[in-house]
Amino acid sequence: MGKDNRKILLDVKDLSVSFDTYAGEVQAVRGNSFYVRKGEALGIVGESGSGKSVTVKSLIKLLPMPPARIKTGTAMFNGKDLVKMSDKQLESIRGSEISMIFQDPMTSLNPTMKVGSQIMEGLIKHQKMSKKEAREKAIEMLRLVGIPTPEKRIDQYPHEFSGGMRQRGMIAIALACNPKLLVADEPTTALDVTIQAQILDLMKDLQEKMETSIILITHDLGVIADVAERVIVMYGGLIMEEGSIDDVFYRPQHPYTWGLLKSVPRLDNKAKERLIPIEGTPPDLFSPPEGCPFAARCEYAMPICKEQMPERTSVSETHSVFCWLQHDMAPNVVNPVIEGRGK
Amino acid sequence: MGRYVLKRFGLMIITVWVIATLTFFLMHAIPGDPLSTDRGMPPEVRKNIEAKYHLDKPLMIQYAYYIKDLLHGDLGLSLKYKTRTVNSMLMNGLPASAKVGLLGMLIGVSVGIFLGIIAALNNKGFLDYLVIFIAILGMSVPSFVFASVYQYFIGVKLLWLPVAGWEGPKYLILPVASMATFYIASYARYMKTSMIEVMGSDYVVTAKSKGLSHTAVIIKHVLRNASVPIITFIGPSLATSIVGSFVIESIFGVPGIGKFFVDSVKQYDYTMILGTTLFTSILVVLGYFISDMLYGVVDPRIRLDK
Ligand SMILES: Nc1ncnc2c1ncn2[C@@H]1O[C@H](COP(=O)(O)OP(=O)(O)OP(=O)(O)O)[C@@H](O)[C@H]1O
Ligand SMILES: [Mg+2]
């Protein structure tokens, strides 16, 4: 793959987000930096509680604040810092330049409002359309996301839609104003497998047509491989590894990524390979460890791992990792995933 | 929809029948006798009266008479005021009861819902705590205490309003206020809880993610959904308020159904007791029915054609 010359659309630096709860400060995201290019699809993976949703929701302040609080960081979007924006400025960005799709289509649509009206709202607000124009556009959007007889469906309520159709409806809402960035937070987790594939295909298709950038959050590596060009692997509120799909799937460097890859069923492997879950439990975010959050579960952990978080190490131009194993003085560890595949 | 309404209606009739039957047999299971308070009644007169009211017949026969009359909408003769029917007494009391009750309820529910919204929008702020305080006070202190407090301060001390009686619009204010107090408290609490729940729901995040302003999110997405559960309470409140509050009526001397009811209980006037109970339960059942129908108007998921 050649050098990627596309412009950077979103550039996040040193983002930390905490929740102030009665029990103390939950440090959900702890100083992460990443970027998304124009028209690019970035995947974020990591197990439950690793801070994926908090990371993206904090960008357009969809978290309840308080308790949530952005402690540090900047998020340059089209040359402006989202973190510093006023509520009014953010309102003009939400839904028009950055849109979101959520995990559960059964609960993310308003049950007492017609699906059509829910699509029209954003159009009326951002594109100053009349009701009639917005209605036309909403029908067009429903058709675009593959809902049959949209003229009829537009006047139906969410409960008259199936789960997959509701998620299509959500996509129609999200894409109605032609946003520059679409954030999809586990958009297919709540759907059954065949519907999952359809929704992913639809997203890929629309991304190409509309040249939207995508951030796709999931804990399903298969989904990432299918849709994304680049991947961020998160754990305990921190980025562990970052790289292109090939980097992360074929040359993974971080023991946590190895663990994730081993726990994925492989369709291309005829041998009845057993899925190996990662042992142990995620770190306590009230008092996150000084060192690498994965150290407690890492079978290669060294004393230094528990004391200090490793710096970013570049493996290649596209690929970087946060792991002490990269240090010159660390022992040479053979990557077990590659090993397994060799056979 | 038609079938659903019909089914609900049938269920309503059955409910009322069950209540009528239960009250009838319960009344007969309680020791006592409607004629026992008339000490000096000669035995022949007593026999005559018993015959007239079928009290000399077996219970099942009495029940059959009772149901037969009910089907004709006849609640029978009062045992105490022997020349008056239960129907006429209820109808006499109803206007006063309904005036106080409905006004109190409508004012109370509106103010309560308004306060609940304020509290939810100020969650954990000063106004919220103020509303919660009012709500707890209004729900835990019995209404006769409020009624007495209003009566004493506004009627006796300040002389702003008449203490009791029933001679004009002025006489309405204190009983209506006492009635409203309870509704304000309970509806403020229901509405706040409901709003908070809706404000934390996924679709509100979706609405926000479209770029709608906070005000637009509240008006277009939160209020309607938050009022869905409130509607469940409104029907029954409507029904019970029509019958009025027995306690408030007797404190302020409102000539409503409540007063008759209290008297009839004291005097074991069991046709009156049966009649009033039945009348109230018909209203309550009707109230639930209205609620269910309203529910369908607000919440499209309930617009069933089952
Ligand atoms: N409102 C909140 N108050 C307190 N803590 C919160 C809140 N929301 C999230 N957190 C905490 O932040 C951490 C990260 O949560 P987040 O939702 O980002 O995880 P995630 O990676 O998206 O997981 P999942 O795959 O389950 O969606 C979790 O430990 C969670 O407990
Ligand atoms: Mg999440």
Number of strands of chain A: 12
Multimeric state of these chains?
Answer: heterodimer
What is the name of the CATH superfamily of the domain at 93-256 in chain B?
MetI-like
CATH architecture of the domain at 93-256 in chain B: Orthogonal Bundle
Cα(first) to Cα(last) distance of chain A is: 27 Å
Beta-strand fraction estimate of chain A: 15-25%
Q: Number of helix segments of chain A?
A: 12
Q: What does the model show?
A:
Chain A is an alpha/beta fold and 343 residues long. Chain A has a domain at 235-340. Chain A has helices spanning 52-59, 87-93, 115-126, 131-144, 150-153, 163-175, 193-210, 221-227, 245-250, 255-262, 303-307, 336-342; strands at residues 8-21, 24-37, 41-45, 68-77, 80-81, 98-101, 181-185, 213-217, 230-235, 238-244, 313-314, 320-321. In chain A, strand 1 (8-21) and strand 2 (24-37) form a beta hairpin. In chain A, helix 3 crosses helix 4, helix 3 runs parallel beside helix 6 (163-175) and helix 4 (131-144) crosses helix 6. The longest helix of chain A has 18 residues, at 193-210. Chain A is globular, with a radius of gyration of 21 Å. The two termini of chain A are 27 Å apart. Chain B is an all-alpha fold and 306 residues long. Chain B has a domain at 93-256: MetI-like fold, CATH 1.10.3720.10. Chain B is 75% helix and 0% strand. Chain B has 12 helices and no strands. Chain B has helices at residues 2-29, 43-52, 59-71, 86-121, 126-140, 143-157, 170-199, 202-209, 214-243, 246-252, 257-266, 270-298. In chain B, helix 4 packs antiparallel against helix 5 (126-140) and helix 7 crosses helix 9 (214-243). The longest helix of chain B is centred in the middle third of the chain and has 36 residues, at 86-121. The radius of gyration of chain B is 24 Å and the shape is flat. The mean pLDDT of chain B is 83. Classes of the chains: A alpha/beta (343), B mainly alpha (306). Chains A and B meet through helix 2 and helix 3 of A and helix 8 and helix 9 of B. Magnesium ion binds next to helix 1 of chain A.
